[in-house]
């Protein structure tokens, strides 16, 4: 580390993990894993110990979101990418409309557009750093968009578009769930993976589904459409009601997610969790606004994500070099999204991240840049 600019220990964050996913895992979650040995870990997912964990998660998610009457929590193997394929089989009757303003909204659009049993998807787009919302359109039976675009740090509202009739609203909440406020009644499907605000690992998807979405899932399953069992939301629905998944899930992931939900609910629920992320992202946006070599990438304050903050750096400050010095001293995973190709940092500030550590992060960056530019 002879060429590394040493940051004084008093400036460094206590915990230097700021990844946009996977995200910081807490000591309490690791302790929960230890406590789950031997009763839960290494036992059948179709027996009470593991099914009890699934039941707890489904119940706690319902509480976290003040779930309306008739809504249910379902889960399945695979992450959000797997859910896109499942949705193409089990939620879209004929055509979907997608609002894409970053990498992940575009990927879901591609999944439905390439499905041979569906009509061509309708795609509404906006440049990276901006946003576009769904609008009613003839022939559309699913309206899909991300609540929070992880690649760019753009957050949009979850509001049911006017005039869409019995069409479903399907919202990608992978980086929003657990860290951003939402009226869940505005979404028919609010789906996510657990490696962001829920501070767990990937490999599972969860979805909060409305009665209308359940009816659509059952309608399509009964229609004769061929659906692979692993991508059938009807199979996932039936298994979820039994507190299990079709195939063996990542049990440690479930244990860590339950522990994170316990912490969120003990602190005050979604309001508590969202307020922590807002405080952390506010520190970054305020810093970017007053610092001469930074600029907030998302120029519209109403669109700025409270959980993933993207900050452009002046060309005189090499992001890769800045991050190299930080990583050598335990401050990690503030890399920009690779496909944007911008000179920036992207900081995950999910609820588990301490705002005080975010304050330390900006002090460390100031300290390094002062010396890198001399």
Please provide a written account of the structure.
The chain folds into two domains: 27-266, Type I PLP-dependent aspartate aminotransferase-like (Major domain) (Aspartate Aminotransferase, domain 2, 3-Layer(aba) Sandwich), CATH 3.40.640; 270-372, Aspartate Aminotransferase, domain 1, CATH 3.90.1150.10. It has ten helices and twelve strands. It has helices at 27-35, 48-64, 80-90, 103-114, 211-221, 233-240, 251-267, 270-290, 319-327, 355-372, and strands at 72-77, 96-100, 122-125, 142-146, 148-149, 154-155, 168-172, 189-192, 204-209, 294-296, 308-313, 344-348. A seven-stranded mixed β-sheet has the order 1-9-8-7-4-2-3, sandwiched between helices. Strand 5 and strand 6 form a beta hairpin. The longest helix has 21 residues, at 270-290. It is globular, with a radius of gyration of 21 Å. The model has no long low-confidence stretch (mean pLDDT 96).
* E-strand count: 12
**Termini separation:** 20 Å
The tally of domains stands at 2
Percent helix range: 25-40%
CATH superfamily of the largest domain: Type I PLP-dependent aspartate aminotransferase-like (Major domain)
> What is the arithmetic mean of pLDDT?
96
Rounded to an integer, what's the Rg over CA atoms? Answer: 21 Å
CATH class of the largest domain: Alpha Beta
Q: What percentage of the residues does DSSP assign to strands (E)? A: 5-15%
Shape type = globular
Write the element-wise H/E pattern from the N-terminal end onward.
HHEHEHEEEEEEEHHHHEEHEH
- CATH architecture descriptor text of the largest domain: 3-Layer(aba) Sandwich
- By helix and strand content, what is the structural category? alpha/beta
The number of distinct helices, counting runs of at least 4 residues, comes to 10
- List low-confidence stretches: none
Assembly category: single chain
Major sheet characteristics: 7 strands, mixed
Biggest sheet strand order reads 1-9-8-7-4-2-3
